[in-house]
Amino acid sequence: MLIDLDHLLATPLFDANRCSINFHPLHSYFAIGVYVFMLLPKPTRILGLGLCIHILADSLDCWLMQL
Length: 67
What we know:
- This protein has two helices and no strands.
- It has 67 residues and is an all-alpha fold.
- The protein has helices at 29-37, 45-65.
- It starts with 28 loop residues before the first helix and ends with a helix.
- The protein has a domain at 24-67.
């Protein structure tokens, strides 16, 4: 998904132990709020749902890293 393009801004580009939530701009808490708001209007609902599912998957990954 295009949401992961913000990973290219990170230094180092890949870090297996880094949680992307609130680290990358498109994974920030503000952006997550926008994605949740996108669930309300019908024209953006599908895109918002996809973005929220992506954030949930990244959150699960962060949670599993801490175990």
